[in-house]
Design brief:
Strands 2-1-3 form a 3-stranded antiparallel β-sheet. The chain has helices at residues 7-17, 42-55, 57-62, and strands spanning 20-26, 31-33, 65-72. By secondary structure, the chain is an alpha+beta fold. Helices cover 40% and strands 23% of the residues. The chain is built from 3 helices and 3 strands. The protein starts with 6 loop residues before the first helix and ends in a 5-residue tail after the last strand.
Length: 77
């Protein structure tokens, strides 16, 4: 049986499962998280990082980055 969730329940569930953002890995191995208001699940973050790597080469070079990577917000805790 499928149940409908309220907006609040959905927001809580998304917060629990979508805890990845995209980050730039720099040549000196430092990270710069890209805080754009979007959170992703693990697989979606990996796909998004690959997409950005393919389409934003100029921007990555301008920011002195090596590549885009998924970044887990749970690592900060």
């Amino acid at each position: 049986m499928v149940t409908k969730h309220s907006r609040m329940e959905k927001k809580i569930m998304d917060t629990m499962t979508n805890h990845y953002i995209i980050s730039i890995l720099h040549k000196d191995h430092s990270l710069t998280p890209l805080w754009v208001g979007r959170r992703y699940g693990r697989v979606a973050a990996m796909l998004r990082a690959e997409h950005l790597q393919e389409t934003c080469e100029f921007e990555l070079t301008a920011l002195d980055g090596e590549r885009f990577i998924p970044y887990s917000l749970k690592q900060e805790q």
